[in-house]
Design goal:
With about 120 residues, the chain is mainly beta. The protein contains no helices and twelve strands.
Amino acid sequence: AFSFDKIIVISSTPGNSPTTGSVSLTISGMNFGSANLSPSAKLGTTPCEANQWVSDTSFKCKVPRGHAPDHQAQILLTGESSATTLMFTYDRVIATAIVSSALYPTTGAVSITISGKKSRN
C-alpha cells in the first residue's frame, strides 16, 4: 500500500493576532506536498478566512476573527491532517478605565466608556 509522510507543523509567524483577525499567518513545517489546490487550515475549531499552499514547507492562512488564548493550529492537505499542532493566540484586551456615572436607571440604556490596551501575554 502507498502512503504519504505525515504532515508536521513546526512553527507559525506571527504566533498571535489582534482579535479582529485578517492577519496573514505563515505556518512552517514538513511534508506539505509538492502542490495543493485545495488546502485548508483552522485555528481551534474555526476555519481560516483564506488558505494558500506555498511549498512543501510553508503554508499561509488568513487568521479569522477570534478571542481567547491558546488555539491549536492544524493544516489539512489532500485528506491528511497535520500530525502535530501548535498553539496560536489572540491578543488580550485589558480594560484600564471605565467612565460612567455612579447611578444607573433600572431601565438600562446607559452609555459607558471603556478604555483599554492590548496585551500579548
